Amino acid sequence: MTNIIKNSIPNTVTCLNLFSGCIACVMAFEAKYELALLFIALSSIFDFFDGLLARVLNAHSIIGKDLDSLADDVSFGVAPSLIVFSLFKEMYYPANMEFIAPYLPYLAFLISVFSALRLAKFNNDTRQTSSFVGLPVPANALFWGSLVAGAHDFLISANCHPVYLLILVCLFSGLLVSEIPMFSLKFKNLSWNDNKISFIFLIICIPLLIFLGISSFAAIIVWYILLSLFTRKSK
């Protein structure tokens, strides 16, 4: 009985990730972007702790890995897709684009499709134990939630062309399944030499959080991508 309870704890936390992700989807569909971001952030916390608890408790479950991927695709795939879908429907469309305005929002679901591909790839990629290959889905979801919640007024103004948003959707969808190495924030110790990139990343994150407010998460994800690219080139 004790083992059953112990093995169920990580899966319970994964289910909380899924539950929070479902609420994020509803908030996104209702264009309540700040609440959608809040529940995506909550899902990312649950996503972090389910794996941590599984390792600490040495809890094994035959459904754990599959359940985690399904929860992640809802919380970090469908939820950001719905955020962008709702934004596309609010955007200003020039006269020459009005004929595709009813259809363009559906391209937001490329995020969900590529998130699923990313998760399937991650589950079968032995290279991604201490670092990542391609953009992690929680980072992608936080980028979209933060961008739309923080820059909503600009994004729906005449100054922002819908094509720009579509390009961004395609770019980040490509990053999800790319072969670009991305560093992990897993600290094995507190040594500067062993964790230099992570420390540099976190130090720059502090002013971004202070000065950019709710948009800071989007800026932090861009900083994460750029630092990963720089690290790759310097090796």
From the structure above, extract its key features.
235 residues; mainly alpha; Four Helix Bundle (Hemerythrin (Met), subunit A); 9 helices
List the secondary-structure elements in sequence, H or E.
HHHHEHHHEHH
CATH superfamily: CDP-alcohol phosphotransferase transmembrane (TM) domain
CATH topology: the name is Four Helix Bundle (Hemerythrin (Met), subunit A)
Helix content: 55-70%
Q: How much of the residues is beta strand, in percent?
A: under 5%
Number of domains: 1
Per CATH, the class reads: Mainly Alpha
Uncertain regions spanning at least 5 consecutive residues:
none
Strand order of the largest sheet: 1-2
Global morphology: globular
How would you portray this structure in words?
This protein has nine helices and two strands; from the N terminus they run H-H-H-H-E-H-H-H-E-H-H. 35% of the residues are buried. The protein has 235 residues and is mostly helical. The protein is 69% helix and 2% strand. The longest helix has 28 residues, at 2-29. Helix 3 (64-90) runs antiparallel to helix 4, helix 4 runs parallel beside helix 7 (162-176) and helix 5 packs across helix 9.
List the helices and strands and how they pair.
Elements: H1 2-29, H2 33-56, H3 64-90, H4 110-123, E1 132-133, H5 137-150, H6 152-155, H7 162-176, E2 181-182, H8 196-212, H9 216-234
Antiparallel strand pairs: 1-2
Helix pairs in contact: 1-2, 1-3, 2-3, 2-5, 3-4, 3-5, 4-7, 5-9, 8-9
